[in-house]
Write a structure and sequence with these properties.
It is a single chain. By secondary structure, the protein is an alpha/beta fold. It has a single domain, classed as Class I glutamine amidotransferase (GATase) domain (Rossmann fold). The protein contains 5 helices and 12 strands. The strands form 3 sheets. It has a 7-stranded mixed sheet with strand order 2-1-3-4-12-11-10. Strands 5-6-9 form a 3-stranded mixed sheet. The chain has a two-stranded antiparallel sheet with strand order 7-8. The model has no long low-confidence stretch (mean pLDDT 96). The structure holds glutamine (GLN). InterPro entries: Class_I_gatase-like (IPR029062), PdxT/SNO (IPR002161), PdxT/SNO_CS (IPR021196). One of its GO terms (biological process) is L-glutamine catabolic process. The active site is at 82 (nucleophile), 173 (charge relay system), 175 (charge relay system).
Length: 192
């Protein structure tokens, strides 16, 4: 059966998320990937991707577009990367972000220090047979996770991949680099 994935299209690397999910869904006939800007766009989605970008800006635009309650109450799968991970938390170290509390975790923005702009690391991720080349860009990290949150990857700076039911959050950018194993894991996990 086809899957309908929405990508929150307020700010950030929206096009990369759309391309990656379209690619990951080529073997699932009847699937579609659409941008989400308004409440009505959320209606019939199986999953929502929240992109990387600037979490303070995305948070402000979520409020402005009346999307806070609808997204906080969204019951499908969520695939969040970087700024998206910040938004999914229940506590964030920056008052300009109103977290959606979709995953019980505390997240620090820019957990790698201000001077570190970006870096790559070969990361062991639970559920993947081979390491994943993770691209970190001014990345956050979870400092604490609540009950029911599965830690999928951890590095010295903190927790960088988690799963909570059908919701997954990554401090890095699986939508960049062409390796779609985490997208596939997420799509498999929607059936849970
Ligand atoms: N540091 C950014 C933020 O907290 C996230 C960076 C990114 O998404 N690449 O919004």
């Amino acid at each position: 059966m086809g899957v309908k994935v929405g990508v929150l299209a307020l700010q950030g690397d929206v096009a990369e998320h759309i391309t990656a999910f379209r690619e990951a869904l080529t073997d699932r006939p009847g699937s579609s990937v659409v941008p989400v800007r308004r409440v009505a766009d959320l209606g019939d989605l199986d999953a929502l991707a929240i992109p990387g970008g600037e979490s303070t800006t995305i948070s402000r635009l979520i409020e402005k577009n009346g999307l806070y309650e609808p997204i906080a109450g969204f019951e499908g799968g969520i695939f969040a990367t970087c700024a998206g991970m910040v938004l999914l938390a229940d506590r964030v170290d920056d008052p300009r972000v109103r977290p959606l509390s979709l995953i019980p975790m505390h997240v620090a923005r820019n957990a790698f220090g201000r001077q570190v702009d970006s870096r790559e690391a070969m990361l062991d991720v639970a559920g993947l047979a081979e390491p994943f080349r993770a691209v970190f860009i001014r990345a956050p990290a979870a400092t604490e996770v609540g009950p029911g949150v599965e830690v999928l990857a951890r590095i010295p700076e903190g927790i960088v991949a988690v799963r909570h039911g059908r919701k997954m959050a990554f401090a890095f950018h699986p939508e960049l680099g062409g390796d779609l194993r985490l997208h596939r894991m997420f799509l498999e996990n929607l059936r849970v």
